[in-house]
Amino acid sequence: MIEVSVSSLERDLARKPSLYAAADVGEYWVIDLDGGRALVHRRPAGYGYAEVVEVGAGGEFAAAGLGVGAISLDDLLHAAAI
Known about the structure:
Elements: E1 2-5, H1 9-14, H2 16-22, E2 27-32, E3 37-44, E4 49-55, E5 60-61, E6 71-72, H3 73-81
Parallel strand pairs: 1-2
Antiparallel strand pairs: 2-3, 3-4, 5-6
């Protein structure tokens, strides 16, 4: 699941992780456009995620279960600004 947050960041980080984890969504990404970061939630555990990684400028991340290459956060943010 991927959320692109502008005005919904608080809800995307406070409420939705527990809903997605409870539904056994394997990964939940929040792309924080204003903050220039991505928050990658992995390993659903009950009503939350056992792993949350913040990726900042210059960082990369990949979907663990999809077998695709890493995504550059800078490239993603640049594309969103176009």
